[in-house]
Amino acid sequence: MLSINLGLAQINSKVGDLEGNFQKVLFAAKVLEEKSHIVLFPELALTGYPPQDLLLRRDFLEAVKTYIKKLIKVSSEIKALLLLGAPFYEEGKLYNSALLLYRGELLGVYHKRFLPQYGVFEEKRYFTEGSNFLLFSLEGIKFGVSICEDIWFPTGVERIYSLLGAKVLISLNASPFTYGKYFSKEIILKARAEDNQAYVVYVNLVGGQDDLIFDGRSMVISPKGKVIARAKPFEEDLLVVSLTTEEVENLRLLEPRLKEENINITIKPLFISLERNLVPLEARVEEPLSGEAEIYSALKLALRDYVEKNGFKGVILGLSGGIDSALTLVLAVDALGKDKVKALFMPSEFTSRESFEDAMELAKNLGLELMKVPIDQIFKTYREEIKRGFSYEDFTVAEENLQARIRANLLFYLSNREGYLVLSTSNKSEAATGYGTIYGDIAGGFAPLKDIYKTWVYRLARYRNSIQPVIPERVFIKPPSAELRPGQTDQETLPPYEVLDEILRLHLEEGLTPEEIVAKGFEENVVRRVFWMIKMAEYKRRQAPPGPKVTSRAFGGDYRLPITSGFF
């Protein structure tokens, strides 16, 4: 029985870097060509995903066209077929397409049919819906091609391919990561394989792109719904899998349900001669991550790619002795290495001795030098100068926020001097409720914990300490505090984080109304207050730095409120 070797090239494309992405494609193709009959790349591998309004620039589309021509030309030097995603412009219409290249020719093009327009997706803004097919035959084995969203519809293009005799269904993807999504995705893909009695080959992008994370985990699923190959999570990976059609043919003989369906479509497949017999290979099946390990790996990838793809030398953050800055610092060191991370401790008269000790111990455990710049005198000077024109004597929240803004000024000064990116240490619970100082602790160039609830911060920190205990135990047990006035704690302003985070999750991720959340046993006044805080904090969130999307509904692309609104 003939064996076909598929090379899955799970690459990390950078949006707009056509030359860099071209070189990645070329490198992967050359590595995989000796072992593969066909090398598969993700959706929009040439441009990265999502290109957004670059797709509205004629010069960008012309550059894409030039690189497609370069790919066609270079395919003459590659022994394997190449199938990759790229924008394709023809007859005044732009498509999200898959290109089949071989021996210096563009053999076929498939245009994505289902264009998502929800959450972080805006494909209908740029692309035209496709209506064609790409069915090709390698030595008598038929392959059908689709792109990402197409495969989520059970009666979509994959069904047509199967009824036309396709035994391998290829899906090119740029599917963003959200926590827990992988396992539901795998269930759907298994269902497609079983329903269509065919192999499903899922090739996914990997990498961080602004607020999106692509987790890779490309896979091949057998007609019986078994994962027979899986690439690494959150890493670039090249994986070869050998397929024979015995299992497909046996299934279709024993369970001939596909024969019961009629189809009125005629497609002439492309017939391609391989002219190469390759040794069948046993594919790797990497273990998928779950829980805190999955989230932590996603955050590391997002932070590293944001820093490196945007050309920063490293990162700098304010280390307070609290859990948020502790986790952010450890994450930064894990993502970038200690030589690219700077930590600044900026105590005031309200900073406790314990916070200084905890910050020092953490820095020491990570092998970092902790820079110390007290803000007492700066704060005092500010207040004295203000008193020259205003008769302010009392201590209010304005004085608290002034301290946070002084710290932000120092961080941004050093950022300018050193070329380091300022990391905000704010989390999702604080962003939701506005518990943070605009132009102060909210400020930064990137916020790694932006979509991480406060209770998750503790969970992730515990997980990281289970690998190596670097965060001092006292950081976990002391009451959270901004330390901007004597005896301050977060819980004076906010509900307990266990309560707050569950209210937020029920509303943001499950779409529950205040009344429905109250019906689940939460106090009405607490729920109403949380919703009021969410409403009032929208103007802060609009001015906050980007950060990686982890949950199914993150602030920004997924959840947007009008700033001016009379309804909550």
Written overview of the protein:
This protein is of the alpha/beta class and 568 residues long. The chain contains 17 helices and 19 strands. The chain folds into two domains: 3-272, 4-Layer Sandwich (Nitrilase/N-carbamoyl-D-aminoacid amidohydrolase); 291-487, HUPs (Rossmann fold). The strands form four sheets. Strands 13-12-9-8-7-6-15 form a seven-stranded mixed beta sheet, with helices on one face. A six-stranded mixed beta sheet has the order 5-4-3-2-1-14, sandwiched between helices. Strands 18-17-16-19 form a four-stranded parallel beta sheet, with helices on both faces. A hairpin with a 2-residue loop joins strand 3 and strand 4. Helix 1 (18-32) packs parallel to helix 2 (58-74) and helix 7 packs across helix 12. The protein is elongated and about 85 Å long. The mean pLDDT is 93.
**Assembly state of the chains shown:** single chain
Low-confidence stretches: none
How many domains is the backbone divided into?
Answer: 2
- Give the total of beta strands: 19
Radius of gyration: 27 Å
What is the architecture of the largest domain at the second tier of CATH?
A: 4-Layer Sandwich
> Would you identify the CATH H-level superfamily of the largest domain?
Carbon-nitrogen hydrolase
| CATH classification, class level of the largest domain | Alpha Beta
Kindly report the CATH topology of the largest domain: Nitrilase/N-carbamoyl-D-aminoacid amidohydrolase
Proportion of strand residues: 15-25%
Class from secondary-structure proportions = alpha/beta
Mean pLDDT across all amino acids:
93
